[in-house]
Design a protein that fits this description.
144 residues; alpha+beta; Nuclear Transport Factor 2, Chain: A; 6-stranded mixed sheet; globular
């Protein structure tokens, strides 16, 4: 996949594309291309008692964490709204997503927000440095 990393939107589009697809392997080469080597991804949520939880992962840890799920399940995450703020060599993307088990499912099985921080490197290209997300749940709704 050829990605125009001079374009923040193209990097975000590639992030969604590399994790989406039918059950089976994902495009980890694209993940390595668009995520900074020192990047972190953080999944947040609530435990069974309603307390906040967070799992923080590097690129390889994320792959190991999600590969069993992706091997067994179709997962199609699409962006429904995006806000980009840029200042110098840093950018923030507030991205609302919907995820389905098949692209033609009428209703998403989950919705949420990805908060994505990017940095522009010495080559002038953007990389994802940090991404944290949370899914909707009762009392928490993502709105554009």
């Amino acid at each position: 996949m050829s990605i125009d990393r001079s374009d923040i939107g193209a990097v975000v589009d590639a992030m969604y594309a590399c994790i989406s697809g039918p059950a089976g392997p994902r495009d980890w080469a694209t993940q390595r291309e668009i995520f900074h080597p020192d990047s972190r991804q953080a999944r947040t949520g609530l435990d069974a008692d309603g307390r906040p939880t967070m799992i923080v992962m590097g690129r390889e840890e994320y792959q190991a964490n999600v590969t069993p799920f992706f091997e067994a399940n179709g997962f199609f995450e699409v962006e429904v709204s995006r806000r980009i703020s840029e200042f110098g060599n840093m950018a923030h993307v507030w991205s609302i997503y919907e995820a389905r088990t098949a692209p033609d499912d009428a209703e998403p099985e989950r919705r949420g927000i990805n908060s994505i921080q990017l940095c522009r490197g010495p080559d002038g290209l953007w990389s994802i440095l940090h991404m944290i997300w949370d899914n909707e749940r009762p009392g928490l709704t993502a709105s554009a």
